[in-house]
Amino acid sequence: MNNDNTLSFSDIIKNSVLDQFSNNLSISSIIITLLIAFFAGLFIYILYKRIFSGVLYSKSFNVSLVGMTVVTAMVILAVNSNLILSLGMVGALSIVRFRTPIKDPTDLIFLFWSAASGIVIGAGFYTLALIGSIIIGLVMFVFVKSASFETPYLMVVHCQNTESEESVYENLKKQVKRFNVKQKTVTADNIEMTVELRLSKDEPQFVNKITELPGVKHAVLISYSGDYVSQ
Fold first, then answer.
1. In the 8-state DSSP scheme, what is residue 217?
2. Shared domain check, 34 and 51
3. Torsion (CA) 40, 43, 45, 46 in degrees, nearest 10
4. 134 and 177, same domain (yes or no)
5. 112 shares its domain with 194
6. Assigned domain for 210 exists
7. In whole angstroms, what is the distance from residue 200 CA to residue 178 CA?
8. What are the distances in angstroms from CA 17 to CA 12, 22, 80, 98?
9. Residue 3 parent element (H or E)
């Protein structure tokens, strides 16, 4: 004879899983969670705008960081409240594809930061979100902002002979922090050099002095991202 008070193994597993989900979400908890997510996204928005060091600042991308934080927190709230809904969202979100190209790897960090903040806040770990955002913000500010002070440049110089080439080297040693020859092409009446360098000053006025050297035909200074491909 079976005892009605005896639970089967499947009932134990079912109860232990369902106990982790609560179908009731109070209005206050929803508002508090979404507000915290908004302020976390706003912090990311301000920091991204403050340390951006690219050429074209995209306000729409920055605003999307705030939206991603809030939306992710809302999704996690729904997932935590209902087991069936959580399984459905896993299937629905698995078919979503984001095809927007990310030009700067730093932007990818901010995207993951926004999504992770939304997940943590939606799960109710407000302290973790606060401490994590502060630490990540400090790391990004220190490394990205300090790196922006030393923008790499490429300088293309055309010289007539070896003597003018040596004079270019001597001037570079005096006026820039460091330089490295990336490419050198020698023809009968021309020596073309592509030099990567870091400036000692903010204004690249030294290139004017390079062009005034005897035997230097012309010089071109180009700011670049740090990746160089020789053609």
1. E
2. yes
3. 170
4. no
5. no
6. yes
7. 9
8. 9, 11, 12, 32
9. none
130-162 pLDDT tens trace:
999 999 999 988 887 665 555 678 888 989 888
Which one of 130, 147, 164 terminates a domain?
A: 147
Q: Give me the sheet containing 191-199, strands edge to edge.
A: 176-186, 191-199, 152-159, 216-223
How far apart, in whole angstroms, are the C-alpha atoms of residue 117 and residue 131? Answer: 11
List the beta bridge partners of residue 192: 158, 185
Cβ pair 210, 157 in contact under 8 A: yes
Q: Which residues of the chain have pLDDT under 70?
A: 1-24, 53-56, 81-103, 145-151, 200-204, 224-231
Residues whose CB falls within 8 Å of the CB of residue 89, separated by 6 or more in sequence, listed in order: 75, 78, 79
Token representation of residue 180: 């490295």
Residues 141 and 95 in one domain: yes
Q: How many CB atoms lie within 10 A of CB 40?
A: 26
> What one-letter code names the amino acid at 99?
R
Residue 165 sits in the same domain as residue 59: no
Residues 114 and 162 reside in one and the same domain: no
30 and 124 co-located in one domain? yes
